[in-house]
Amino acid sequence: MPETSDRKDDHIRIIQEEDVETSGTGFADIDLVHDALPEIHRDEIDTTTTLFGHELAAPIVIESMTGGHPNTTKLNRALAEAAQETGIAMGVGSQRAGLELTDEDLLESYTVVREVAPDAVLYGNVGAAQLLEYDVDDVERAVEMIDADAMAIHLNFLQEAVQPEGDIDARGCLAEIERVASELSVPVVVKETGNGISRDVARRLADAGVDAIDVAGKGGTTWSGIESYRAAAVGASRQEGIGQLFRAWGVPTAVSTLEAAESHDCVVASGGVRSGLDIAKAIALGARAGGLAKPFLAPAGQGTEAVVDLIETLSLELRTAMFVTGSASIEELQETDYVVLGRTKEYLEERRER
Predict the structure, then answer these.
(1) Which of 1, 273, 313, 352 has the greatest number of C-beta atoms within 10 Å?
(2) Residue 26 known to bind ligand
């Protein structure tokens, strides 16, 4: 099995077996202000929103996780079937393996998502570093591979820096992102992978013409930590230590959401999002939707029904938060009152003074 494909399988195994969670999203410091007289019916609350020009039944995204190894086909099938059934969005993991190889079993790990989810909002995924090697036609092949509604370009340079075989040349990526955003046939979303997007980077991405920003902030799965485990397995002790040192590096998700929303009107909040209440808080901070990855992994292994069950739980938690803030729609939730406390308040105040 080729190196890129094997790496995908390693990632899933490590996430399932090891401690790869960090804290510090900032959501614990965000309080939505309670409305004791909401004057709405909970079951009539409208949770629909639009993302990449398509309507979602709820502002929930199954974040890019996997693909590129035959072992991941079952997972992506269950995730996509659940997205189809519940009307939410889903992304696939990096399609680098699918673009570089022609193994049919490997390709099925990606193509299965559109086969089982003909109406779901699906987005593809390529790395910013790979844009230095790919032309727009290559990215279009990734779009065609899953008949994608949008294409994510992921930023994962800390992860690459920890990988013994990582791609550590980040020069020229912004210009390539701008080129793809202007020429690709579908909307482009730029997403981090667990370390967040700052105000300055969000502004640069907005100026580059990207259609959405997925902040993927600090506080959830740590890819630095995951790569530390991989480095340890191959005896790369220096890289293992770097991975542990930077395990909790990044901009907290709540902060990143606020800062990105200052520059772009389509922000997805991910990175340690673990409940419908977290999604509600993210939307109040300016996000269009909230995304989760790792919480979907175990249910995906159990099958479509388990994934649907989690989505329905998240939706009810979100709807309850909307009910007790008097928010009859996602648009109203975006305007609801909130209070910022603790370290997140201090972080924001320090940032504003600079």
Answers:
(1) 273
(2) no
Provide the residue type at 209 as one letter. G
Asked if the model's pLDDT at residue 2 lies above 70, the reply is no
- The Cα–Cα gap between 232 and 162 comes to 11
pTM metric for this prediction = 0.95
pLDDT band at 221 (very low <50, low <70, confident <90, very high): very high
Q: DSSP states of 61-124 as a string?
A: EE-----SSGGGHHHHHHHHHHHHHHT-EEE----HHHHH---HHHHHHHHHHHHH-SSSEEEE
191 is in an annotated binding site: yes
What is the Cα–Cα distance from 245 to 234, expressed in whole angstroms?
18
CA neighbor of 34 nearest in space, from 287, 338, 273: 338
The fourth-level CATH superfamily of domain 4-350 is Aldolase class I (3.20.20.70)
Q: Which two tokens stand for residue 297?
A: 């992994």
Distance from C-alpha of 202 to C-alpha of 215, rounded to nearest angstrom: 9
> Is 111 annotated to bind ligand?
no
Burial of 1 (0-12, 13-18, 19+ CB in 10 A): middle
| Cα(95)–Cα(106) distance, integer angstroms | 10
pLDDT at residue 1, rounded to an integer: 44
